[in-house]
Amino acid sequence: MRTLALLAACATLAATAQPPDPQALLAAQKEAMKAFSAMNGVWRGPAWTILAGGKKLELTQTERAGPMLDGTLKVVEGRGYLPDGTLGFNAFGVIAYDVRTKKYAMRSWAMGQSGEFAITPTADGYVWERPAGPGAIIRYTASVKDDSFVEYGEYVAGDRPPSRIFEMNLKRVGETAWPAGDAVPMR
C-alpha cells in the first residue's frame, strides 16, 4: 500500500513538473497583446516637452508601432524632430505580456537611459510610470482612438498636483509592416 501511495505521489509531482505548453503560452500572450493593437501604424504630429531648466521644447513627433514574434510583442519607435529637421529625441520600446504573472511590461531605451516599467492597458490606450527622483514619478497616459494618438506626461511628487511636462497629438499617416514585415527569408 505504501508503494502505491509513493508511486501516486511521484506521478503527481512528475505531472506538475511538466513545462507549460508553448503554444498555449503564445496564444495567451497574443490575445493579451491585442490591448495595444490600435497603436499599429505610422503616426505624426506636434509635441512639446519641458526641459530640465524649465524651457519648453516643441517638436514634430513621429511614432511607428507594430507586432513582432507573431503578435506576442509590440515594438515602438518614437522620433522627435526639431524645427530645423534634426533629430532631437529618439526612443525605442518593446511591450510584452507575462502569462505567468499576468502583467505587462515595457522595456525602453531613450536619450542614453533604459529601464523596464509596468504598463497598463486602458479602455482606449495605456498608462505607464517611471521614477523621477526621490518620491517622484512621471506618469504617461495615452489614448489611441481611430486616427488619433494622444499622450501626455505628468510629473507627480508628494502632495503637489501633477504638472504636465510632455504632450503629443499625433494623427495616423499610414500603415506599416515594420518591424516583422522585412524578415530575412530562408533562401
The counted number of beta strands is 10
Structural class: mainly beta
Mean of all residue-level pLDDT scores: 91
Large-scale geometry: globular
Largest sheet: 10 strands, antiparallel, barrel
Element order, helices and strands?
HHEEEEEEEEEE
Query: Which spans have pLDDT < 50 for at least 5 consecutive residues?
Result: none
Number of domains: 1
Topology:
Layout: H1 2-16, H2 22-33, E1 41-50, E2 56-68, E3 73-81, E4 87-98, E5 103-110, E6 113-122, E7 125-131, E8 136-145, E9 148-157, E10 163-174
Antiparallel strand pairs: 1-2, 1-10, 2-3, 3-4, 4-5, 5-6, 6-7, 7-8, 8-9, 9-10
Q: Could you describe the 3D structure shown?
A:
- The protein is mainly beta and 187 residues long.
- It has a single domain, classed as Lipocalin (Beta Barrel).
- Helices cover 14% and strands 54% of the residues.
- It contains 2 helices and 10 strands; from the N terminus they run ααββββββββββ.
- It has helices at 2-16, 22-33, and strands spanning 41-50, 56-68, 73-81, 87-98, 103-110, 113-122, 125-131, 136-145, 148-157, 163-174.
- The protein has a 10-stranded antiparallel barrel.
- β1 (41-50) and β2 form a beta hairpin.
- The longest helix is centred in the N-terminal third of the chain and has 15 residues, at 2-16.
- It starts with a helix and ends in a 13-residue tail after the last strand.
